[in-house]
Amino acid sequence: MTTTQPEAGTNRLSFLPVPDETQVPEGVRKLWGKAEANIGFVPNVFRAQAVNGEQFLAWWNYFNLLLNKEGYLTNAERELVAVVVSGINRCLYCAVSHGAALREFGGDPQKADAVAVNWRHADLTERERTLAEYAEKLTRHPAEVTAADLDPLRAVGLDDHQIMELVQVIGMFNMTNRISSALGFVPNAEYYRQGR
């Protein structure tokens, strides 16, 4: 597959060339069209990961299930965790794009911006703080996580389904952060204005 690389002086989306609509599977084209219709733009992560179209679609199906469907945690809680993990990993794309989602779901731009930089400086509830603490430990020190780390989660009301979803969201963002950072994905300009 031949991909198109931005000409000198133009903005790039990724360290790799990004395919155009003629170079991706039909499912990818449909997803790009759906994103354009629903949110008014195609997220750069959709374009950049489409280098391997079928793998991108497999990633998107799981990501979409965890973040965009009705879940066990609230949308704001899932986005909080996404931003905590992305901030710790210093993933520009995910911290910016999910910071925008956290601003929208949480309704508090100041809090969302604080979480993206250092969640400890954000005005979090006890439950949010507990989610953030667990997300940080699993991100920074996965080999040190034990069954006892679930006790604070249970103390703030999480059940088994919520704990499983929390772990899956943390895992998804650790993986996605590494993909985005390794390939230099650039956030869409729209994210910076969203939810403000």
What does this structure look like?
By secondary structure, the chain is mainly α. The protein folds into two domains: 21-67, Single alpha-helices involved in coiled-coils or other helix-helix interfaces (Up-down Bundle); 75-193, Up-down Bundle (AhpD-like). The protein has ten helices and no strands. It has helices at 26-39, 44-48, 53-67, 75-88, 92-106, 109-118, 126-140, 151-155, 160-182, 189-193. Helix 4 crosses helix 9. The longest helix has 23 residues, at 160-182. Mean pLDDT is 94; it is low at 1-9. Pfam families: CMD. It comes from Deinococcus carri. Residues 55-136 form the Carboxymuconolactone decarboxylase-like domain. This is Carboxymuconolactone decarboxylase-like domain-containing protein.
